[in-house]
Amino acid sequence: MKKCLTVLILCFCFLFTGCGPSTSVNSSKASANFIGFVTQLEGNQVLINDVWFSFSDQTVLKTDKDKKLHKDDIEMGKKVNVTFDGELQESYPRRADADQLVFLTDQQSKTEGSVVRLVVKDPRFSQVVIQSIEKNPTGLYSLRFKDLSIDRDVHVIVNVENERVIVPIHTSTK
Asked: I need a labelling partner for 71 at 20 to 30 A (CA). Which of 28, 47, 53, 63 fits?
């Protein structure tokens, strides 16, 4: 009986040892990256794809070539790599606090930024939340987004050279 009681007490000790609060020696914050396009700017918040990122004076704003930027340098359509604490609020669009905004300056990012800018400036759309962008074999860009003002998913084709946004007409073949 004594042996059984001792084993039982040891089991409870091991069980409760694992249930205590975590005291990690390395308690650094985990960070995450998010790449997307600027489609709205309101005060100290910027909508990048489907996330509103808040930023402050402590948030680092720069280009990928380490050129320091200011809030006034944020433009619609710019492609951005955002570093944040990894916590996204569950809303739509989601929300997070940005630690760093790095604006990408390579040619592909500039061209894709022009595509997004054409759609954002198009009067047919008002609250654009980017879902995907890809270049077709024909050289045209396919852009999928949600227009929050009408609560619909939209697919457009963009011709950057002619600065045209084409909304394909879907016909049923019944």
From this structure: 28
